[in-house]
Amino acid sequence: MTEKSGNDGAFTRQDLYGTVAETTFGGALSFMRRKYSRDLDGVDVAVCGVPFDTATTNRPGARFGPRAVRAASANLAWARPYGWDFDPFDRLAVIDYGDCSFDFGRPENVPAAIEANAKQILDAGAALLSIGGDHFLTYPLLRAHAAKHGKLSLIHFDAHSDTWADEEGRIDHGTMFYHATKEGLVDPARSVQIGLRTVNEDLLGFNILDAPRVHATGVEATAAEIRRIVGDNKVYLTFDIDCLDPCFAPGTGTPVCGGLSSSQALQILKGLAGINLVGMDLVEVAPAYDIGEITALAGATLALEFLCLYAYNRPDRKAAE
Ligand code: MN
Ligand code: MN
User: How far is ligand 2, taken at its centre, from the CA of residue 159, in Å?
Assistant: First the structure.
């Protein structure tokens, strides 16, 4: 149910549930106009920005991703998301937790800061939707999630495998799933990478649905194969926006031609309804290279789909009261 209300729900709204329409072009920005809060009592999902891009190999700028995705989400927040028969905000109490803070002058300390921030949220019983930031941040996030949930299935959308071999301790957005696999945070045999289109000779045993295969087999077959691979395992979902073709996501650091359309990605995600999702992130939106907010809007829309997937198995709590 959409009710009309005044602006600035990011700090004026009381109820953590529900969709409230605001003037799209005005008002204080938060992700999907959720209330800014650090109070995790009764919260189902905390949305947290991680404005870190020091691990980028090519064009930097994803540190501005959280802000851009929040701004773009204002255009989505006036009604429930299309294509689902429920409003995720009638099922989930969602807050915008603000951004993870860290000392940019001590990059070696950033992974521990991201992990500790995530752990604080997970320990309070909330799930975490993180907005990056470059893709490295998924590594400390996986450490926090695996500590709570055990070894995870990874559903990973990307142009790149991010499993290139590396030395311990390096902070690089192309190698963190190598570290995560060696550390036993994820189970490659029950994990899947979608949209790849760059060469890596050693894929560490991950299941691969590369971009040509998605284009050839279609979205329904892709979603069915992902569901088959992860089964009822606990799933961490990570979406590198460069999985999308540069024409759908120009605003990113390492664009690669031949990627998925935003429509393909959305349809695949809808086809994953029912998976056992425990954590999710959306990374690599770099607004300085964006055009007309294409990339930020795609990022916000995808992140909202993650919330729908997370809400799918849950009852409408407002209706039950
Ligand atoms: Mn990538
Ligand atoms: Mn990546």
Answer: 7
Chain centre distance of CA 262 = 15
Tell me the CA–centroid distance for residue 150 and ligand 1, in Å: 25
pTM above 0.85, yes or no: yes
What is the Å distance from ligand 2's center to 6 Cα?
39
34 alpha carbon to ligand 1 midpoint, in Å? 28
Ligand nearest to the CA of 243: 1
**Separation between Cα atoms, residue 162 and residue 152, nearest integer Å:** 17
Tokens for 76, please give them: 């989505």
Task: Give per-residue pLDDT as tens, 74-121.
Answer: 999 999 999 999 999 999 999 999 999 999 999 999 999 999 999 999
Number of domain units in the chain: 1
User: Residue 95 Cα, ligand 2 centroid: separation in angstroms?
Assistant: 26
**What CATH number has the domain bearing residue 149?**
3.40.800.10
Ligand nearest to the CA of 139: 2
